[in-house]
Design a protein that fits this description.
- The protein is of the alpha+beta class and about 290 residues long.
- It folds into three domains: about 50 residues, no CATH class; about 50 residues; about 150 residues, Alpha-Beta Complex (endopeptidase fold (from Nostoc punctiforme)).
- About 40% of the residues lie in helices and about 10% in strands.
- A hairpin with a 2-residue loop joins strand 5 and strand 6.
- Helix 2 packs antiparallel against helix 4 and helix 4 packs across helix 5.
- The longest helix is centred in the N-terminal third of the chain and has 73 residues.
- About 30% of the residues are buried.
- About 25% of the residues have low confidence.
Length: about 290
């Protein structure tokens, strides 16, 4: 019996027998030829030889190309992203460097401003102290006026005067004359003459003309002698600013409500009225 006799009659006879197509995909689009034998009829089946052109694997290449393109695009995106990150990091570094430089500049400016403020405060303090030195320099008769004033007070001061001072009037006149002679000299911190002074250096040198050795600094000079009222001053008295024992400036009272003092580097040694900057206290050595 024929091997196709079992096929039901309602089905169409197989015009084309089973065709076995052996497909082998080769990446270059190779062609494969396969001989397929099929039964054409129920009994007599002649072998049929058919040449089939197998499709090339273009789809595989297309997928690979698409994947390659996608990978290339992704790589380009990654490189672009990295470049953006590098640029952002470089910009951030420049910004941080600039901010640091600005902070340093502001800190230096602040320190300079603080130093300038401190210098101004010190200059103002010395300026207040120098106000007792400039007015008497305008008159050449101040020395003689001071001498007469001192002579009238000689008896009252003699009790507290050092033994080295035998003539209070003469000593006071000598001190006042010396102080006035230095008006116009420069002010230098630590200066002791002969052409530049600080406040206590001038007072010490003036008293040395009367044979009296005073302490070197204003703090000690403000307690050397007897404390006297500012309403009862005599020429030659030592005026001080600040508290006794911790004075920051001293000058010499020259009579007529004026004093001579080495004030600061801006004004030098001057003569001024006490009303310009009233001292804190005074001591009498003579």
């Amino acid at each position: 019996m024929s091997h196709t006799a079992h096929i039901p009659s309602h089905r169409k006879p197989r015009q084309r027998a089973s065709k076995s197509a052996l497909r082998a995909g080769v990446a270059g689009g190779f062609l494969s030829t396969i001989a397929v034998a099929g039964a054409a009829g129920p009994a007599q089946a002649e072998p049929v030889t058919q040449t089939i052109e197998m499709p090339t694997i273009a789809s595989g290449f297309s997928a690979a190309a698409a994947a390659s393109a996608q990978a290339t695009q992704q790589l380009a995106l990654d490189m672009e992203r990295q470049a953006d990150q590098d640029a952002a990091a470089e910009k951030a570094a420049k910004t941080a460097k600039k901010a640091h430089a600005e902070a340093v500049r502001k800190d230096e400016a602040k320190k300079k401003a603080e130093a300038a403020a401190k210098a101004r405060a010190e200059a103002e303090a010395k300026e207040r102290a120098e106000r007792a030195s400039r007015t008497a320099e305008r008159t050449t008769l101040s020395a003689s006026t001071g001498g007469s004033g001192s002579s009238s007070s000689g008896s009252s001061a003699s009790a507290s005067a050092p033994s080295s001072s035998s003539n209070v009037s003469g000593s006071a006149a000598s001190i006042v004359a010396f102080a006035k002679a230095q008006v116009g000299d420069a002010y230098i911190p630590g200066g002791t003459g002969p052409n530049a002074w600080d406040c206590s250096g001038l007072v010490q040198a003036a008293y040395r003309t009367a044979g009296i050795d005073l302490p070197r600094v204003s703090q000690a000079q403000s307690t050397y002698g007897t404390q006297v009222s500012l309403d009862n001053l005599q020429p030659g008295d030592i005026l001080y600013w600040g508290s006794a024992g911790s004075a920051y400036h001293v000058a010499i009272y020259v009579g007529g409500g004026q004093f001579v003092g080495a004030q600061n580097s801006g004004t030098g040694t001057v003569q001024r009225s006490m009303d310009y900057d009233r001292p804190t206290g005074a001591v009498r050595v003579l």
